[in-house]
Design goal:
Elements lengths: L2 E8 L4 E8 L4 E5 L5 H11 L2 E6 L5 H4 L2 H8 L3 E2 L6 H5 L1 H8 L18 E4 L2 E7 L8 E5 L4 E5 L2 E2 L2 E2 L9 H12 L7 E4 L5 E2 H7 L9
Parallel strand pairs: 3-4, 4-5, 9-12
Antiparallel strand pairs: 1-2, 2-3, 6-7, 7-8, 8-9, 10-11, 12-13
Keywords: Hydrolase, Metal-binding, Zinc
Cofactor: Zn(2+)
InterPro entries: MBL_Glyoxalase_II (IPR051453), Metallo-B-lactamas (IPR001279), RibonucZ/Hydroxyglut_hydro (IPR036866)
Length: 215
């Protein structure tokens, strides 16, 4: 049994949506379906993956814009984020209009997530970390066997998430990265919400916002 994933950049924001699955059961989930739903569904079909759920790191439009529609059309449960992002979910129609996205539906997640929770994808178990700062309800999904983490807009290669949105906070975000992500280990490869993959070790060494400094 092994955990697999394929990342599909979607929307004008080139947001990294990921199809994740267990290669034993071929049951999977879509992480952060921000838009371009036919492309995401076609990708899952091409991979032979049966989508069973939607996983959300946070509720900004480029990550969550297609969630309500996809859940309704395919009858999928919505898992995540943390309930502190409810106000972002409620504001999805306004976000879509503001940024020129197709109209986004609001929704109520089937299950809110909290730090320490787990999510099953086939026979694979994803660990959940609550990592506020970019948004207050942001969560991260970590699959320990493959050493892969889906971190949304918490951390990027060489940068970190913006904190100038409502209820964003720079100090909270830095603390989330250092206390919730770094303990997973330097070898962990993370899939960010935008841009290329990197590792926690690489970012600890070189990321100007969160690199380790000599004490």
């Amino acid at each position: 049994m092994s955990f697999r994933y394929q990342t599909v950049p979607v929307t004008p924001f080139q947001q990294n949506c990921s199809i994740v699955w267990c290669d034993e059961t071929m049951e999977g989930a879509v992480v952060d379906p921000g838009g371009e739903l036919p492309r995401l569904v076609a990708t899952a079909q091409k991979l032979g993956v049966t989508l069973k759920q939607i996983l959300l790191t946070h509720a900004h439009i480029d990550h969550a814009g297609g969630t309500g529609t996809l859940a309704r059309e395919l009858g999928l449960p919505i898992v995540g984020p943390h309930e502190a992002d409810q106000f972002w979910i409620d504001g999805l129609p306004q976000q879509s209009a503001m940024f020129g996205f197709p109209p986004a539906e609001t929704f109520t997640p089937t299950r809110w997530l909290h730090d320490g929770d787990t999510v099953q994808v086939g026979h694979c178990t994803l660990q959940v970390r609550h990592c506020p700062g970019h948004t207050p309800g942001h969560v991260v999904f970590f699959e320990p066997d493959s050493q892969r983490a889906f971190v949304g807009d918490v951390l990027f290669a060489g940068s970190i998430g913006r904190t100038d949105f409502p209820q964003g906070d720079f100090d909270t975000l830095v603390e989330s990265i250092r206390s919730r992500l770094w303990p997973m280990g330097d070898a962990v490869v993370f899939i960010p919400g935008h841009g290329p993959e990197s590792s926690f070790g690489q970012e600890r060494r070189s990321n100007p916002y969160v690199r380790d400094v000599a004490r």
